[in-house]
Write a structure and sequence with these properties.
Blueprint lengths: L12 H6 L9 H6 L22 E2 L1 H22 L2 E12 L5 E14 L2 E9 L2 E2 L2 H19 L3 H28 E11 L2 E10 L16 E8 L5 E8 L3 E3 L4 E3 L4 E9 L3 E15 L3 E16 L6 E3 L2 E2 L1
Length: 317
């Protein structure tokens, strides 16, 4: 699904990105495919949670909430394609005592090129690119535009088939979350003017993953703030509670790795990323520990199209 906007920093955001369908933009063609009616028709009104006296939410209730949010995401993804924005990412390298030893930042403008989100680097360490580096970025984007413009029918078919397979895998992942965790309603909170449920998730004892991608779920716990009116997640706080190994043990994410993500409703029509922060400790190749604090901000959302169809940057039909 969307927004896998944390995946490159912390393995936990695999849960983040699939949990209630995060918001990473997909291609226009892929989104158009999702314009067909969903397999599960969402109810006319938002789901009303009915926990037991201890606050525990039944698996079926939470599965219904996931389906509801996922079906609404179809329309959200189509609207998301109408926006450009600025993303600034900062990485703070830490020594073994937690002291900052190096800070780097990258600022990118996210554009739509033939319905595809494309990042253009515009600043390093908060300084504009040199004329030479700016030209390299423009040339890179032009190559992307030329490739998509000249895409053959066979290549387009393969791309859409791959995207369809990914969507099906995402849906399986999302629905299995209801089986992997015990969810408990712990209260309500107002965030950015939105009324939300606050729900804690703990790994369910005895859970056995049905999919390879969901084997990692038992390694995490978290809290999610869900908009009561729309079923969208507003904030997500995830912590690794056990070591996670991947890449045939070439890398290990240590217990205690932590990520917080927030999204916001823009123009009262679309949910978009707002902020992501992560603290990670990874052991690479069983030799080197890499400790980092990562902070991502998203701003300056601009709606770049109304009724006209944008097929490329600066091109309309």
């Amino acid at each position: 699904m969307i927004m896998r906007f944390c995946l490159r920093y912390l393995l936990a955001p695999i849960l983040l990105s699939s949990f209630l369908c995060a918001q990473e933009p997909q291609s226009a063609a892929a989104a158009a495919d999702r314009a067909t009616p969903p397999t599960h028709t969402p109810p006319a009104d938002p789901i009303q949670l009915q926990p037991d006296p201890s606050g525990l939410i039944s698996q079926e209730q939470f599965r219904e909430l996931l389906r509801y949010a996922q079906d609404r995401e179809v329309e959200n993804e189509k609207r998301l394609r109408d926006y450009t924005y600025i993303n600034r990412g900062e990485e703070r390298k830490l020594d073994r005592d937690g002291r900052v030893k190096k800070i780097e930042s990258r600022t990118r403008e996210v554009l739509e090129v033939y319905g595809e989100p494309v990042e253009r680097l515009i600043a390093k360490d908060d300084k504009p690119l040199s004329q030479e580096d700016a030209k390299k970025e423009d040339d890179r984007i032009q190559k992307i535009m030329d490739k998509r413009k000249n895409e053959s029918e066979n290549d387009r078919r393969k791309r859409l088939e791959k995207e369809q397979k990914e969507r099906e895998e995402d849906r399986k992942f999302v629905l299995e979350i209801a089986d992997a965790f015990n969810f408990r309603l712990i209260g309500s909170e107002t965030l950015d003017g939105r009324n939300t449920w606050v729900i804690e998730g703990e790994p369910r004892p005895g859970y056995h993953a049905k999919e390879r991608s969901t084997r990692l779920l038992s390694k995490f716990k978290g809290t999610v703030w869900i908009d009561k009116a729309e079923g969208q997640w507003v904030k997500l706080d995830i912590t690794a509670i056990d070591t996670v190994s991947f890449g045939w043990f070439l890398a290990r994410l240590h217990a205690g790795a932590h990520a917080v993500a927030e999204q916001i409703k823009v123009n009262d029509e679309v949910w978009l990323p707002k902020h992501v922060a992560a603290q990670v400790s990874v052991r690479l190749a069983l030799l080197k520990n890499d400790n980092e604090d990562i902070d991502e901000t998203y701003r300056d959302y601009k709606k770049f199209r109304a009724e006209s169809k944008i097929t490329a940057v600066g091109e309309t039909q």
